[in-house]
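Write out the 3D structure for:
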Amino acid sequence: MDGSTSPAFDIDMIQRALELLVEPGTVVELRIPGTRHGTVSGYFNDLDAMRKCAVSMSGKAEGVYLTLNPAFSDLLARGSNKLVRYAKHATSDEQVLRLHWLLLDFDPIRPAGISSTDAEHEAALHRARECREWLRTQGWPAPVFADSGNGGHLAFRVDLENNNDSTETLKSGLLVLGLQFSDSVVQVDPNTYNAARIVKLWGTLAAKGDNLSERPHRLSRLLDVPAVLEPVSVESLVDLARHLPKAEPQAQARPSRSNGQGFDLDRWIADHNLDVDGPTDWQGGRRWILRVCPWNPNHRGSAYIVQLPNGAVAAGCLHKSCAHKDWHALRDLVEPGWRNHSAQYREGVWAETNLPFQTAEELAAEAPAKVTWIAEPWVASGSITELAGKIKSAGKTTWITHLVRKVLEGEPFQGEPTLKTPVVYLTEQPRTSFEVALKRAGLLGRPDLIVLFWHKVIGLPWHVIAHGAIEECKRRGARLLIVDTGPQFAQLSGDAENNSGDALKATQPLQEAAAAGIGVIVVRHERKSGGDVGDSGRGSSAFGGAVDIVLSIRRAEGNSRPTLRVIRALSRFSETPDELVIDLTPGGYVSLGQTKAVEAQEGEASILSAAPTEECDAVPLDDLVKATGVKRATGQRAVTTLCSKGQLARVGGGKRGNPYRYWAPRIDSAQTTPPNGQKESCEIETEVL
């Protein structure tokens, strides 16, 4: 079927294109290859004559082209302001006076000699728009944006000498742009750097192959021409060229220990869960595009890993702010410590590796005089604290937000000192519920609490999130980082949470934060079955083994007040207690002491409040225990203590039918003994039933 009925030319568009591209008084070549008369060519300094010749040839060959840059005026002698059939000579790079244009040609991938489909055509134009916008963010001026008839053109004004340095700069820049914007659908032509480059004259017909409805011939045309065409600065061109991947020292592929083959980059990418597109072929090697820049999550699709034809590996990001990021920087980020533990294997023998051994004497000399506590004795500078508790019932968030408030103020937390510092807080909670938690803790509206919500970073790799959090801590001067919860941000689900290898890998970025002197609290939900401290957290116990302090927070057992919590701990620091009961008061959490002591205090208070105040209403022990809900043993000890203090009185004979009964007499400050005259301790005796 016949394709489009596009006109063979647009004379006004041709005139506008010539005035745009050709400076008055300069000489350019008009070239029409592949005609029935071979290549037809002529040299022009008369734009009217050139326009007429272009109109006469449009649609009679695949395309009508002109040289972008001015040629030597002597070349007019090859055909002065006219076309010559079967032209034997074309403009060479050496015959160009100066470089005035850099052409970016976005061409759909398709078989040679045919026009593009509408979908291919639009894909190429869309890619050109994306590239134009990205270059704008890098400080480039606006280009001429044109439709080649099959794809897209961006023509940037430049002003460069025609020499090897200029050619190499433009060539490298095109390869860099191809790294980001070429794929299996659209290619950035890497060969438009040469001085004698020709471009389709906009306004003429693109007529490759037969004119079919699915692959029609189209007019090339100007789409957007800036009011002022500013040249791209030399600095911007050179800066783009600098991003061309190059092998770095010690980044060459080395034989592996197992099979003597090169560095297994595919496996390395998979092992570190990098979110990439690829690999695709690139300049004889392979290319991966990271969907999100590992150094700046605001950069999308600009970071890359390449393996060059010789096996060497390079990496980077095309944004200026990431100009110094490379393959080594990427490994430092996603594989901390690789420089120390990855010896290179050469010629079948492991190279010597300088492992950082130290004597105990050296350790002592380097050790700080004392631990720098951020919130003593729960989290220290340069250490990791894990907090586990039942989901939505243990009060993990409440405890942490109250701790954070005291740290921000530099006030004591649970009676112990804190170090005043800003705090960075990563939370899995939705914004609405987290704002409620912040409001309850008096934190809402604080400028020194920096929050990152999980829903805003869904899909980003954990190492990228963690690195961003560490950098934010450094930027804000924050010494405390909260990750609530660790497995959620590390994206551990299903079997991965129970796998020790995945657990240790998830902990590595937190260890990097600790190495930077930041105190870290990482939260985990407790497993349904509970367990001892260190084993109660959901998932692999390797989490606990990789941290410095393990805390478990639970509600107090028995019929205790709902504000009571019990913290149990395993710690590398002697200051951290094994167990502590805390109480949430209007002023925050306060420390009550060890469980048994608190249990006794709570039992005494419960028994005393339940005991009748008149002797005639005295009740047996079992009634007091039943009324208060305390354990019977706790109730017995409480009654004994209260009787010894004179706060309870006892009547009865302790026998069947006449058991001991207890009541709480009102004692004024002048009395030293109960009203019934008891002076002895009223120990609980076993009652005869």
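Residues 249-261, 343-353, 669-673, 675-689 have pLDDT under 50 and may be disordered.
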